[in-house]
């Protein structure tokens, strides 16, 4: 697989940056900050699938950034029958973004793999996350220095799996599709999106949620050494 490969593109959230862990810690902090008596485990259990669904709608241009930030919280609180006024929802939405990047847990093996790949390939990021937050995540987690380019959906005006974002990233990296690989946790957004422009993909399947998918996949980042 390494024949001719010069560029490796990574997704960020749920691939290198442990979004679920950092998000949970953020909610714990902001609920305490705003004096909101919510049972954290109950909230997280309903919030995580709701959040994933909103991100899918966001990728498909069916909700706006503002709709995502408000709607995922409103729906989660309504689901657990906790009455929270819109004013508090909006405060929580702002606090969540403010505090999310103060927690910067990475998936196991992230630094080891990046150190291993750094001397052999040019590394890049392609992310659908919000531009201001993604740059802070990279800086605060102290991994920004590994990546030559960072392509964000807000820069391009479209989101993965739209081919335009992958072509933009290739152009920015001065890379050809056939000499590139995409690594990410979403079969649809990362792997199938990359495949549409001729980039081969490796699926990071940390929860084994795509066990039946007929693609190259890894369960731990350190397994990338087997391919690269």
UniProtKB/TrEMBL annotation:
Cited Pfam families: Hydrolase
Q: Which domain of life is it from?
A: Bacteria
Please name the SUPFAM superfamilies in this protein's record.
Answer: HAD-like
Q: What is this protein called?
A: YjjG family noncanonical pyrimidine nucleotidase
């Amino acid at each position: 697989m390494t024949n001719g490969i010069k560029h490796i593109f990574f997704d960020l959230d749920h691939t290198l940056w442990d979004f679920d862990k950092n998000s949970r810690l953020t909610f714990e902090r902001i609920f305490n900050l705003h004096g909101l008596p919510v049972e954290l485990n109950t909230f997280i259990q309903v919030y995580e699938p709701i959040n994933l669904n909103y991100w899918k709608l966001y990728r498909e241009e069916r909700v706006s950034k503002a709709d995502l930030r408000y709607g995922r919280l409103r729906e989660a609180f309504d689901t657990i029958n906790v009455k929270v006024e819109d004013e508090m929802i909006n405060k929580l939405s702002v606090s969540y973004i403010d505090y999310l990047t103060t927690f910067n847990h990475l998936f196991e093996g992230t630094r080891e793999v990046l150190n291993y790949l750094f001397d052999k390939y040019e590394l890049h990021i392609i992310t659908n996350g919000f531009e201001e937050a993604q740059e802070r995540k990279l800086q605060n987690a102290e991994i920004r220095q590994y990546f030559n380019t960072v392509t964000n959906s807000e820069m391009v005006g479209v989101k993965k799996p739209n081919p335009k974002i992958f072509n933009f990233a290739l152009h920015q990296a001065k890379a050809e599709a056939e000499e590139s690989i995409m690594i990410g946790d979403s079969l649809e957004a990362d792997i199938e999106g990359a495949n549409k422009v001729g980039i081969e993909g490796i699926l990071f399947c940390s929860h084994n949620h795509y066990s039946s998918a007929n693609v190259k996949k890894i369960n731990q980042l350190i397994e990338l050494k087997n391919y690269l």
